[in-house]
Amino acid sequence: MKPFPYAAPYPSHRRTRVRTTACVIACTVALFAAFGAFAHGDTVPQAVDTSSLPRLGDAWRAENPYRTNDAAVKVGSSAYNQNCARCHGLEAVSGGIAPDLRKLDNDCATAQANTRATCVKENDEYFLTTVRHGRSRNGAVYMPPFEGTFDQEAIWAIKAYLETRREKPF
Predict the structure, then answer these.
(1) Can you spell out the DSSP letters for 82-120?
(2) CA distance 108 to 120
(3) Dihedral of the CA atoms 147, 153, 157, 158 (nearest 10)?
(4) Residue 147: helix, strand or coil by DSSP?
(5) How far apart are CA 146 and CA 152, in angstroms?
(6) pTM assigned to the model
(7) Distance between terminal CA atoms of the chain?
(8) What is the DSSP letter of 68?
(9) Sign of the alpha-carbon torsion through 163, 126, 156, 47
């Protein structure tokens, strides 16, 4: 018996199997990459040592009492980079998963001098509420709540640090 004049490198059933295997591998890699991106929120927050900062008491402050406090900025930098950077980016430069916090109070930077104080106060309240209670949409948690994990000294120290990283300085 003479061989067929044209022989494909693989029989058709083997080519199909190779393509299917390649597709399964590609889908598996994509799936693990997706889970890796969502798993960032499953880490345990790191403790924040606020012993070098003045105590603020039990009542939550409406405005950042540590604004321009160098010790608070130092504590906030460490706390941010240990707890917030995995989503919001190292040194507050967003990596794309969560908002760029350097832009948090851009509206205040461009506000008239007579309305800037009100803008800053509202921004502080928004920041505090977001960090304390987290963010979720349609049942999906985008940012976990940190109340009970961080005291207000830690939260305001992080805000003091972020104010040094503003995109549009005042």
Answers:
(1) HHTHHHH-GGG---SSS--GGGTTHHHHTS-HHHHHHHH
(2) 6
(3) -10
(4) strand
(5) 10
(6) 0.73
(7) 88
(8) T
(9) negative
Report the distance separating Cα 102 and Cα 85, nearest Å. Answer: 12
Q: What is the CA radius of gyration of the chain?
A: 25
Residue 40 in tokens = 């960032």
Residues 6+ away with beta carbon under 8 Å from 2: none
CA 25, chain centre distance (Å)? 30
Over residues 104-150, the pLDDT tens digits come to: 888 898 899 889 999 999 999 999 999 999 999 999 998 999 999 99
Helix (H, G, I), strand (E, B) or coil at 130: helix
Judge contact between 72 and 66, C-beta under 8 A.
Answer: yes
Name which of 165, 10, 167 is nearest 92 in CA terms.
165
CA distances from 167 to 84, 123, 131, 158 (A): 18, 15, 20, 16
Beta-sheet strands, E only, within the chain = 135-137, 140-143
